[in-house]
């Protein structure tokens, strides 16, 4: 009888244990928005995709070790190293952003200039900003709230003024009283000859289109201050 094939789900406890055993390898602390739990989920998905590559005649842990370590290395490279300053790999670079050739690491260097043009923005987006330097943006934003009920009441008042009497009947029925549209055509005495359509379908559609156009104009012209 052939040995039973193990599925990804059968081994999930071992997989999680091996993933979190290698937490210390995630040394990319510069990207603080990516917690190791996020990294762990990426690794799980990667293992799931590569599951058929595990030779089940061999122990699973060595295969998991190699897969996890390689994936962490790939993540570090893809997230940070690919966008890092060329100075990090340059023999002329010195501490404190100094350079033996150009004195400082700057756009006088063609490699640095190309990095500024093509990768610096991606690099900066992925670096955390110290909170103490952005206190105003975080703590002193003006309070802004929307009084939804007041806004709805104002819209209803304005719509009553700008709608025709027949339009306002439809508006009130549908959008204030919130009654079903199916009975409205019959209530208003609309006729319809279209098969498989509610009574007065075409007339109601035209009225609703007119209501919508007027409502859009009212809102987008800024007449409603909430």
Write the layout of secondary structure elements.
Elements: H1 12-21, H2 36-49, H3 60-79, E1 93-94, E2 98-99, E3 103-104, H4 110-118, H5 120-125, H6 135-139, H7 148-162, H8 165-176, H9 184-188, H10 201-220
Antiparallel strand pairs: 1-2, 2-3
Helix pairs in contact: 1-3, 2-3, 7-10, 8-10
Number of strands: 3
Helix-strand makeup class: mainly alpha
Rg (CA only): 32 Å
Reported for the largest beta sheet, the result is: 3 strands, antiparallel
Estimate the strand proportion.
Answer: under 5%
The helicity comes to 40-55%
Distance between the termini: 74 Å
Please, how many domains? 3
- What's the rounded overall pLDDT mean? 78
What are the segments in which pLDDT stays under 50 over at least 5 consecutive residues? none
Silhouette = elongated
Walk me through this protein's architecture.
- By secondary structure, this protein is an all-alpha fold.
- The protein has three domains: 9-80, no CATH class; 86-139, no CATH class; 148-220.
- Helix content is 51%, strand content 3%.
- It is built from ten helices and three strands; from the N terminus they run αααβββααααααα.
- It has helices at residues 12-21, 36-49, 60-79, 110-118, 120-125, 135-139, 148-162, 165-176, 184-188, 201-220, and strands at residues 93-94, 98-99, 103-104.
- A three-stranded antiparallel β-sheet has the order 1-2-3, with no helix packed on it.
- A hairpin with a 3-residue loop joins β2 (98-99) and β3 (103-104).
- The longest helix has 20 residues, at 60-79.
- It is elongated.
- The termini are far apart.
- The model has no long low-confidence stretch (mean pLDDT 78).
């Amino acid at each position: 009888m052939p040995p039973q094939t193990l599925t990804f789900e059968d081994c999930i406890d071992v997989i999680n244990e091996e993933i979190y055993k290698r937490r210390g390898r995630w040394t990319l602390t510069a990207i603080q928005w990516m917690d190791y739990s996020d990294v762990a989920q990426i690794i799980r998905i990667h293992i799931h995709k590569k599951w058929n590559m595990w030779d089940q005649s061999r122990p699973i842990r060595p295969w998991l070790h190699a897969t996890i370590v390689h994936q962490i290395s790939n993540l570090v490279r893809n997230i940070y190293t690919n966008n890092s300053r060329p100075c990090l790999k340059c023999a002329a670079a010195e501490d404190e952003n100094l350079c033996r050739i150009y004195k400082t690491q700057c756009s006088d260097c063609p490699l640095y200039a190309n990095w500024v043009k093509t990768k610096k923005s991606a690099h900066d987006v992925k670096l955390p900003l110290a909170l103490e330097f952005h206190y105003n943006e975080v703590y002193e934003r003006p309070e802004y709230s929307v009084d939804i009920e007041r806004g709805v009441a104002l819209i209803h008042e304005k719509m009553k003024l700008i709608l025709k009497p027949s339009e306002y009947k439809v508006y009130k029925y549908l959008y204030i009283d919130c009654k079903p549209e199916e009975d409205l055509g019959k209530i208003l005495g609309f006729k319809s000859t279209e098969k498989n359509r509610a009574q007065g379908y075409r007339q109601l559609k035209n009225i609703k289109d007119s209501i919508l156009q007027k409502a859009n104009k009212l809102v987008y012209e800024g007449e409603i201050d909430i």
